[in-house]
Amino acid sequence: MTGDDEQERAVALGGTPVPTTRERWLARLAFAAATGAVVVLLAAGRGRLTVLAVGVLGLALMLAGAWWFLSRRGVVRWLAASLVVAAPIGVLVFYASQDRLNDVVAALLLAAVALTAARAALTRSQPPAAGMPERRTPPPARPRLIMNPRSGGGKVARFGLVAKAEELGADVTLLDGTGLIDVAELARAAVVDGADLLGVAGGDGTQALVAGIASQHGLPFLVISAGTRNHFALDLGLDRDRPDLGLDALRDGVEVRIDLGLIGDRTFVNNASFGAYADVVQSPAYRDDKRGTTLQRLPDILSGHRGPRLVVRVDDVLVEAPKALLVSNNPYALGDVAGLGRRARLDTGVLGVVAITVDSAAQAAGLLAGHRAKSLQRLTAREVVVDADVPEIPVGIDGEAVLMPTPVRCSIQPLALRVRLPVDRPGLVVPKALLDLTMLRHQAGSVRRAARDEAQRGRSR
C-alpha cells in the first residue's frame, strides 16, 4: 500500500472513507463496463430495441410458464413446461437469426464485469459486516450431547461422532428408539442431572427444540451439523461436510449470543413457513415423494381451491391473502427473488418476513422486478401474527410439519441463546456490497475533487 493510500484511508469525507487508488479505478471500470454494455446493444444496428424487448419477453414467458406449470394440471401443465423450455431457446434462436448473439453475449459479459467491479469498489465504503461478537470461555465440565443416528443418512456413525465426543468428556444420548422420543424432555433431564452444556447432532428441527431448553436455563448450546441440510450450522459458519469438526468447541471454543424465533410456545432457529409450502409438507406422502406430492397438491393451493386464506399482521403492516409466507429468525440476505439466501447475523433482534402473493401468470412475470415486485414483500418485524379463516393451519417449523391453532403469533427473543463454536470455522458469511450509484460516482470522481480541494487550500494559504 502506498503512502497516499494510507493517508486516504485515514481521512473521511462526511463520515465516508476516502477511496483508495484501487477503489477509484474499480469504480471507473464499473462505469466503463456498464457504458460499454449499453453501447454494444445500441450500436448493434437495426432492431436494437427489439433485441432488448425480446429478451425481457422471453424471461416473462418463462416465469408465466412456471406459474401455469405449478398451478395447473393435465395438458395445460405440460404445455406450460414446454413454454419454460421453449422461451429461452426461442430468444437465442432469434438473436442468432438477427446476427445479434455475439452482441448480446458481449453485453452480458460487460454487465458482469461492471457488477463485479462495482461490488469490489463499494465493499469498504459501506458499514462493515462485522461478525457476531465472540468471547472466549472455558471448556464445559459436564457437556451432554443428543445424537440422532438416522440424521443426514447416518452421519453420526460415518464420522465417529459418539467416540470423539466421549473422548472429549461429553455424555452422549442416542435417539435410537423405534417410537416417538421427546427430545425436549431428554434435554430437561440432562439439565436436572447437572449438564453445563447441551448439544445436538441432528436436523434443524431437533436443534431448535434443544436450543429452547438451553436458552431457558442459560446454558451454552453446541451445534453439530449431522442433519441433511444444516441451514442453522451453515449460518453459524460451521463446516456442513465435517460435523466432527464442530466437536472441537468442547476443547477450544468461543461463545456468541444469538436470537431465537418463537412461534406459539415453540422456538425455531431458522424459519416458520405458512401457505403453499406448509400445506404441501403436511401430506403423509411428502417424505417419500417430495417432488410428486408437491406437483400434485400445488394446483389446488395456488388456485385458491385448497388451503386457508391467510391474513398477516407484520408489526403495523397488514398483508392480505399471501400464497406463501416465510418468517425467519433474522432476515435472509438479499439476492434472490424469494429472499432465501443466508443470514450474515443472527443477533439483529428482528424477524425477517417474505410474503409472496401471486394469483396469475402476469403477477408471476412481475417477479422480474425483484424486491420491487408488487407480488413480493420483504419486511422486518418484532412480531408477526398469522390469522386465517379456519381454526388451525399447517406450519413448517424448521422443516417439520405441524398444525397450529389460529391466530399464530411469531416473535423474536433477542440474544436469548448462548452458542458455543469452534475457534476455526470455514464458512462465515460475507454479504455482498449493495449497489449504491451515488457512492460509486463519488469514488469514480474522487481524484478530480481531491485535486480541486487541494488547489483551493493552496490559494487560501
TrEMBL record:
<feature type="transmembrane region" description="Helical">
    <location>
        <begin position="25"/>
        <end position="44"/>
    </location>
</feature>
<feature type="transmembrane region" description="Helical">
    <location>
        <begin position="104"/>
        <end position="122"/>
    </location>
</feature>
<keyword id="KW-0418">Kinase</keyword>
<dbReference type="InterPro" id="IPR016064">
    <property type="entry name" value="NAD/diacylglycerol_kinase_sf"/>
</dbReference>
<dbReference type="GO" id="GO:0016301">
    <property type="term" value="F:kinase activity"/>
</dbReference>
<dbReference type="InterPro" id="IPR017438">
    <property type="entry name" value="ATP-NAD_kinase_N"/>
</dbReference>
<feature type="region of interest" description="Disordered">
    <location>
        <begin position="126"/>
        <end position="147"/>
    </location>
</feature>
<keyword id="KW-0812">Transmembrane</keyword>
<feature type="transmembrane region" description="Helical">
    <location>
        <begin position="51"/>
        <end position="70"/>
    </location>
</feature>
<feature type="transmembrane region" description="Helical">
    <location>
        <begin position="76"/>
        <end position="97"/>
    </location>
</feature>
<keyword id="KW-1133">Transmembrane helix</keyword>
<keyword id="KW-0808">Transferase</keyword>
<feature type="domain" description="DAGKc">
    <location>
        <begin position="138"/>
        <end position="267"/>
    </location>
</feature>
<keyword id="KW-0472">Membrane</keyword>
<dbReference type="InterPro" id="IPR001206">
    <property type="entry name" value="Diacylglycerol_kinase_cat_dom"/>
</dbReference>
<dbReference type="Pfam" id="PF00781">
    <property type="entry name" value="DAGK_cat"/>
</dbReference>
<protein>
    <submittedName>
        <fullName>Diacylglycerol kinase</fullName>
    </submittedName>
</protein>
